[in-house]
Design goal:
This protein is of the alpha+beta class. It folds into two domains: 11-209, Hypothetical Protein Pfu-838710-001 (Beta Barrel); 286-513. It is 54% helix and 18% strand. The chain is built from 17 helices and nine strands. It has helices at 25-34, 56-59, 109-119, 173-186, 196-204, 225-250, 253-272, 274-277, 286-317, 323-345, 348-365, 372-379, 382-400, 409-426, 435-474, 480-494, 498-513, and strands at 11-19, 41-51, 62-69, 72-79, 86-94, 122-138, 141-154, 157-170, 189-192. It is globular, with a radius of gyration of 25 Å.
């Protein structure tokens, strides 16, 4: 029998699942079917998280907690950036209820904070969890399944916890993903990567259950390309899965939009790092990601029409014949498209795609026989890799948009897509550039994306309205009121000075031409 590798010290590999039904008991029954060793164990876990007043640990990608587990106090430091389902972990039993310089010796916290920072540590939020654990024995892995129900608390605010946590005791990350896939085949689920600590910090920021729109990347100049890939993709995956969960639970339209943004970010990074990863081929996930973006886009297009053109129409011509009815028609279509998106999210296809993304990244970075070129690219400083890859891309974009104000609609669409892709390639690496240089790149790209995006939204809105008019004309209703309102809305799609808009895009392009891509390389990183 082949030996199953044990987990190395200071590292945990885990993945969370949330049940679509909201009932954790389904996982307990599924675990028994998969094969558990011994009886389950239930215990109460109360944890207090610590940070400085300015949340320096959070900003540096670490969390620090003391967990009260029966008569034991367990201090745990966790880091992000080791991989999508992998974190650094430093754990020890302590006697006090608060961390100290002595208990944090041997962890990264002392180096991150220094003596002054250590003295300023204070409680920031807490968690109270009832945990039931099972040990799942598989031929290629041992997995601890923890069913957690409870809440995160901060002052008078709280956030519920209801999740299954799978932690790898022995085996490979691929084996953990396979175990999650088997569980989810019995219990419809979505994956979650954000930790309780990360959600606690969102609770502090007063947006615990909002769509995840601002991703906190923690790539640093001293990282190798491989380390930066792990960190950047992990952040994007976590944001995508959180938005999936919010959309499935609450039908949040902004979560749908931000899920599409996360998918675009993932696709942009996949393109940027293709020379190092070389993961396209028979297992290429790009077509599935592209299809999902387009599928979710059907709902977003109608939402934009309702939020912009039709909202303006109601404000300016609210009493005109058919205006309220027209808005009601498209709001119903928006709700229908969102329901279709939610139904798809609850299907096994999305869970499979999510786990395939995690598995593909792990497999690409864990290749046992990379080419010499791959090895060189993965080990080089991330700043050097970015300069090498982004300079020709920026040059090509500027050349194609030399006369951006003269582009016709199809060319404008292509320019918008390229600007968006370039922006998503640069955005995770702001810490490697001086603030002014980073702004000099991102702000013009945002302007071009916004200007051309607005024009595209108007054209899309006009196409939706024209299609609706054709439906009405082809039907039996012959509703003059609705046709009149659709005519007013179509006029709004066209009422703007396109020349002025495109002049602003040309100005942004000129600013971008002066931008600097001099990424900080840091010191040559150790191979990782």
């Amino acid at each position: 029998m082949a030996l199953v590798p044990m987990m190395p010290d200071n590292r945990e590999v885990e993945l969370k699942l949330i049940p679509m039904s909201g009932d954790l008991e389904h996982y307990a029954r599924a675990a028994k079917v998969l094969g558990t060793a011994g009886k389950s164990r239930t215990r109460r876990l109360n944890s207090v998280y610590f940070d400085t007043p300015k949340l320096k640990l959070r900003r540096k990608g670490y969390s620090l907690r003391i967990r009260h587990d029966g008569r034991k106090n367990i201090q745990t430091v966790k880091s992000s950036g080791a991989g999508a389902i992998m974190r650094g972990e430093w754990e020890c039993v302590v006697t006090a209820d608060a961390p100290s310089k002595d208990t944090l010796a041997g962890t990264p916290v002392g180096d991150v904070l220094g003596d002054r920072g250590l003295s300023s540590l204070r409680p920031v939020f807490s968690t109270q969890v009832s945990r039931r654990t099972f040990v799942i024995m598989r031929p290629d892995a041992t997995v601890e399944l923890a069913l957690d129900i409870g809440e995160i608390q901060r002052d008078d605010r709280s956030l519920p916890i209801c999740e299954a946590e799978l932690e790898l005791a022995s085996g490979t990350p691929a084996a953990l993903l396979n175990c999650a896939r088997d569980l989810a085949s019995v219990v419809p689920s979505l994956p979650v990567l954000s930790s309780k600590g990360e959600r606690g910090f969102r609770l502090m920021a007063d947006f615990p259950q909002n769509a995840v729109s601002e991703l906190s990347f923690d790539v640093t100049p001293d990282m190798s390309t491989k380390q930066a890939i792990q960190s950047a993709f992990s952040t994007c995956f976590a944001g995508l899965f959180d938005n999936f969960a919010l959309l499935a639970a609450a039908g949040d339209g902004e979560a749908l939009h931000q899920a599409r943004v996360c998918i675009r970010r993932i696709r942009a990074l996949a393109s940027l790092f293709e020379p190092a990863l070389q993961w396209r081929g028979e297992n290429d996930l790009s077509p599935r990601l592209r299809w999902l973006t387009q599928f979710l886009g059907a709902s977003r297009e109608v939402d934009v029409l309702c939020e912009t053109v039709l909202a303006t129409l109601v404000m300016s011509h609210g009493n005109a014949p058919g205006v309220a009815d027209l808005r009601a028609v498209f709001e119903a279509r928006s709700a229908h498209a969102r329901e279709a998106a939610i139904a798809y999210l609850k299907s096994p296809a999305v869970l499979d795609l999510s786990l395939d993304l995690l598995g593909a990244l792990d497999a690409a970075l864990a290749r046992t026989s990379p080419t010499p070129e791959q090895t060189e690219l993965l080990q080089m400083p991330i700043g050097r890799y970015l300069r090498h890859e982004l300079r020709p891309r920026l040059k090509s974009f500027l050349k194609r948009c030399r006369h951006i104000e003269r582009l016709d609609p199809p060319e404008q669409h292509e320019a918008r897509v390229r600007a968006k892709k370039l922006r998503y390639m640069i955005d995770p690496f702001g810490a490697l550039l001086p603030r002014r240089s980073f702004s000099g790149l991102i702000e013009p790209l945002q302007t071009i994306q916004r200007v051309l995006g607005d024009l595209n939204d108007r054209r899309t809105g006009e196409a939706l309205l024209r299609s609706y008019v054709e439906e009405v004309l082809g039907g039996d209703s012959g509703s003059g009121r609705l046709l009149f309102a659709a005519g007013l809305a179509t006029a709004l799609c066209r009422t703007s000075d396109t020349k002025d808009v495109m002049d602003s895009a040309a100005s942004a392009r000129s600013s971008l031409q002066r931008a600097d891509l001099d990424f900080d390389e840091g010191k040559d990183p150790d191979p990782a």
